[in-house]
Amino acid sequence: MELIHGADELSRTTRSWRADAFEVGLVPTMGSLHEGHASLIRHARDEAARVVVSIFVNPAQFGPGEDLVTYPRDEARDLEVCRRLGVDAVWAPAEEEVYPPDAPLPEPDPGPVGETFEGAARPGHFRGVLKVVHRLFDLTGPCRAYLGEKDAQQLFLVRRMVEQMGLPVTIVPCPTAREPDGLAYSSRNARLGAEEREQAGCLFLALSEAAALARAGETDAAILVAAMGREIGATPLARLDYAAVVRDDTFEATTLLRGPSRAIVAASFPSARLIDNLRLPHAAEES
Ligand code: PAF
Fold first, then answer.
1. Burial class for 22, CB neighbours closer than 10 Å (0-12, 13-18, 19+)
2. Cβ 151 under 6 angstroms from ligand 1
3. What would the DSSP string read from start to end of 101-133?
4. Ligand 1 touching residue 133 (CB < 6 A)
């Protein structure tokens, strides 16, 4: 496995793979790799001939009071995980390689969807995500990029950026990897104390209740949202941030379940803020 640091090195490596007719799979990460990342990497391994994992804790997507400084970092362990999973190259750049001091980079606009839900809770977050992802795509060149459905709003905005800007990248959404109680893998789970961890399954329980209601024929999103709110509300250590039903094609909240949609939820525990989502069954699928 190659370990590369320079921006030019990343471009050279992927260019040489393509020159040898290998398809390039890119797995963008902020490190602290867990089972969720492993499933993205396996997915990439299965579909692309050469796989590069990027590891960069992107300051641009953290707000002033957020956990940039304390965000978990363990490069040695991450490299071991990548080696074990058969990754071909890891790109672990210094900040100057991603954001060269004297060269302004494109800053794709997340638009109004970037201001809702995670964007409302974390102002500027999606602007920072799109900036770094655009840079990554630019350096990597034509590739398949593997992103988790766990961050559904990020996935929506990255896909839309690729479409709107005509970037030569195929976005491959990957299903959320979960612990046995349904908790979605996330680097921030490591922060949860034992009691918080025990209760953190409430997000998946809430989403599962919403999905069960939809499966039973409920089309009023308010009923699903109320059920999710009740589940989180009954969890002593959790504070509901938002629960909603959004349309897959616009990521806008909907009041009526008609086409493909998703239940989304965010809750704060004393030591970590968690998000999750689940695709909802809808009437058109049953017939
Ligand atoms: O999902 C993440 O880990 C990050 O937002 C990403 C896509 C690597 C950009 O920094």
1. middle
2. yes
3. TTS-------TGGGGSTHHHHSTTHHHHHHHHH
4. yes
| Residues 6 or more apart whose Cβ sits within 8 Å of residue 86 | 45, 51
CA distance readout (Å), 62 to 35, 39, 57: 23, 25, 9
Residues 141-191 pLDDT 10s: 999 999 999 999 999 999 999 999 999 999 999 999 999 999 999 999 999
Q: How far apart are CA 94 and CA 20, in angstroms?
A: 28
3 state DSSP class of 38: helix
CA angle 249, 253, 259 (to 5 degrees): 45
Q: Can you tell me which residue has the tokens 């992802």?
A: 133
pTM of model > 0.85: yes
Distance 19 CA to ligand 1 centre (A): 28
Length of the chain: 287
Return the CA Rg of the chain: 19
Dist. CA 178–CA 129, nearest whole Å: 23
pLDDT in tens, 94-153: 999 999 999 999 999 999 999 999 999 999 999 999 999 999 999 999 999 999 999 999
